[in-house]
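Structure tokens please, single chain.
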Amino acid sequence: MGVHSGYTFLLSNHNKGKKEKRIQITIHELLHGQGFAWACTKGNQRGHVGGPSILSNENWTYKLGNMIYDHNNKGCPDLKDSVYLTPTSDEPYDPLPLVCHLAERAGRAHGGAYGFENQWPEKYNHKKFKKIKKKSYWCTYKLAEFAQDDWFRKWK
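Here you go.
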């Protein structure tokens, strides 16, 4: 799942015939589609969160969690400010350009302008955005323009 594309395998053995599980997985993946969990998200555990939240792999609940929505984690995106939620806040952001910019810095994007001419918004100045690990983010926006055939050779 990315902020611009994704999938939920509804026929997985893990959720086959379990309507509640399919709803849970879909909402969980939609949050990934908003960019969560960011590196700066409190309790971030490899793209998920440690506290009670729908974005947790271990402490799952139908709560967003205060680490994701309406948090006080300065310099880190807050779900309440996403342009994809209404009503939109006074300080909205679009997760697509943010994720793709981070992917560019991680060596996993094609080098295009993502909506703010590759300049990182000053508002998101959390220290965890300063040093990006190689291959820690992925941007599939316009993937066909930069994908290489050998990336897909092992796919079945």
